[in-house]
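Hypothesis: this fold can be encoded by more than one sequence.
Test: take the structure tokens below, design a sequence, compare later.
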């Protein structure tokens, strides 16, 4: 049965810890849940449809031979939105903090620039996109008349060029060196290219996921992606299959040519899911069927998960993509496919929650409204869940404050992930830290001082030499550690702490570049350093306990430190060998490769 929304936080927290089955009991464990920087095994790389949908309002859709007219003769193009099966699920996975990147061929045209810009805003990596003026970026022209009827003209562009040779040439190295999961689709990419990427993934021990978005008939006869043999080969090569019910029926007809189509259509979703898994030797099959329950099956377990009851359906476009984004997020955090029924139920719950959030807003890519809806779906039963429950194994009462605390921390990170300005602010701060030609210090007082100390240690381990200096000590001789070529990072939740204001003024008097990580962009410290030097995460949407004990604010600060660290890793090409040189000791040092 599906997990209640109020249980998601504790289940996610337990399953997303550093070791499968090992419970974490610190803030770091919660950060690992939604922080894209926390996972140890690479990122999710997706290759498939990525397109700009250009919308035009027309008075009526013209029939062949007729002339049509736009509704407004002075406004032809109404709007442009990025989308596509693969692009969408990468964005939804990123919404939950799963690190994702798009592998694609794009042109140096307006549409390619738009896709890359929008992906960067939501944190999806674009460095794996091959950009060339010889390529044309995919585009879809959508003509909509007053009654809502629409016609679509699609140009697959350079996506149609990703055959086996192109896939190896453009993406083989990225899959081998950077991916923890490879996701692709049967929708727009030639089947030979899809198959080649799956083989590269298997050769390098990378888990592969295929979104089976269309039936064999559409893929082979209409989209001309390849042959039926290649269609079946792709499905058998993938570790994880996410078919829609209609596509699964078509696949089953190819796998069982002597079985009638009617018999296959009459199969239950559970039986069809198990059949596909067995015939394709898949590690996991997750089948969707519109508003009907979805089914998840591994070799050892199978569960059916009921959909979330929706008060309204605004736009079901992309619901399956959001569903897959949630599924991939859980698999990524589990470091593999589910091994227990509880983990399988967790996959279904998170996937359904994201699919539901997508249905209640317009468009297939996450919006601020859908981010809020994901937050609501995760913690909506918090009050109900806060009642005590009996631990049947020990006969003792479990502490309800633990569940409530974890739910608030998770909500804090979902809220932070909706901050559209954060990627730009983090990138600007990182550039200034890396371009520093003098000394670097990180400073704070109180609990923010503890996060500051951690930040200095983390940056130093990344070969960005940095020293923690307590905010008070700056007034007692430690100003001698900085000069006009130095960079100082100050952490202050309120941005109003007297000691940190005074420290900021002293640093600026020495022409030190000061970066402030604060909640309030209108605080005194923000005014001192200037907007271009502020990383402002905003006022928390709830009161911290006991009138303001620093709890979730520390989780948020720590997550931002992780963002800066990850940005440094990306911008400096910092790899495990370099990390091993800096960190030779302990179990972690022993696990790192040597030059």
């Amino acid at each position: 049965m599906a997990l209640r929304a109020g249980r998601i936080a504790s289940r996610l927290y337990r399953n997303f810890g550093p070791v499968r089955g090992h419970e974490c009991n610190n803030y770091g464990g919660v950060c690992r849940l939604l922080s894209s920087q926390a996972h140890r095994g690479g990122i999710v790389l997706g290759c498939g449809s990525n397109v700009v949908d250009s919308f035009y309002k027309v008075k009526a859709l013209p029939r062949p031979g007729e002339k049509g007219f736009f509704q407004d003769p002075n406004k032809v193009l109404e709007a442009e939105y990025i989308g596509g099966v693969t692009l969408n699920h990468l964005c939804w996975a990123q919404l939950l903090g799963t690190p994702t990147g798009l592998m694609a061929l794009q042109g140096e045209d307006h549409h390619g620039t738009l896709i890359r810009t929008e992906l960067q805003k939501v944190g999806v990596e674009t460095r794996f996109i091959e950009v060339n003026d010889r390529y044309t970026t995919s585009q879809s022209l959508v003509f909509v008349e007053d009654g809502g009827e629409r016609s679509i003209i699609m140009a697959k562009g350079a996506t149609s060029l990703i055959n086996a040779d192109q896939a190896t040439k453009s993406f083989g190295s990225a899959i081998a060196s950077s991916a923890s999961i490879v996701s692709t689709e049967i929708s727009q990419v030639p089947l030979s290219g899809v198959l080649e990427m799956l083989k590269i993934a298997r050769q390098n021990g990378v888990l592969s996921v295929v979104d089976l978005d269309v039936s064999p008939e559409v893929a082979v006869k209409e989209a001309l992606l390849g042959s039926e043999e290649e269609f079946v080969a792709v499905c058998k090569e993938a570790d994880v299959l996410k078919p829609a019910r209609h596509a699964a029926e078509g696949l089953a007809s190819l796998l069982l040519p002597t079985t009638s189509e009617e018999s296959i259509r009459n199969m239950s979703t559970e039986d069809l899911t198990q059949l596909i898994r067995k015939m394709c030797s898949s590690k996991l099959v997750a089948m969707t069927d519109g508003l009907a329950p979805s089914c998840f099956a591994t070799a050892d377990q199978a569960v059916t998960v009921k959909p979330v009851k929706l008060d309204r359906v605004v736009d079901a476009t992309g619901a399956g993509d959001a569903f897959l984004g949630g599924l991939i997020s859980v698999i990524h955090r589990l470091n593999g496919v589910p091994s227990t029924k509880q983990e399988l139920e967790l996959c279904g719950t998170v996937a359904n929650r994201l699919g539901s959030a997508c249905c209640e807003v317009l468009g297939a890519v996450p919006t601020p409204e859908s981010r809020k809806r994901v937050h609501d779906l995760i913690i909506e039963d918090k009050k109900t869940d806060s009642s005590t429950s009996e631990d049947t194994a020990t006969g003792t009462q479990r502490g309800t404050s633990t569940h409530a605390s974890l739910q608030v921390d998770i909500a804090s990170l979902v809220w932070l992930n909706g901050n559209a300005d954060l990627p730009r602010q983090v990138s600007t701060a990182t550039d200034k830290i890396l371009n520093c030609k003098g000394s670097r210090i990180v400073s704070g007082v109180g609990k923010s001082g503890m996060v500051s100390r951690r930040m200095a240690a983390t940056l130093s381990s990344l070969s960005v030499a940095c020293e923690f200096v307590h905010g008070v000590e700056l007034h007692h001789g430690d100003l001698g550690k900085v000069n006009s070529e130095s960079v100082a990072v100050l952490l202050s939740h309120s941005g109003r702490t007297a000691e940190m204001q005074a420290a900021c003024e002293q640093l600026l008097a020495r022409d030190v570049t000061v970066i402030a990580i604060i909640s309030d962009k209108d605080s005194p410290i923000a005014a001192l350093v200037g907007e271009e030097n502020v990383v402002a995460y905003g006022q928390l949407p709830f009161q911290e306990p006991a009138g303001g004990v620093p709890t979730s604010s520390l989780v948020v600060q720590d997550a931002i430190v992780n963002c800066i660290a990850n940005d440094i890793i990306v911008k400096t090409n910092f790899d495990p060998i370099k990390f091993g040189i800096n960190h030779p000791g302990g179990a972690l040092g022993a696990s790192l490769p040597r030059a």
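The mean pLDDT is 84. The first strand starts at residue 43 and ends at 47.
Hypothesis status: open.
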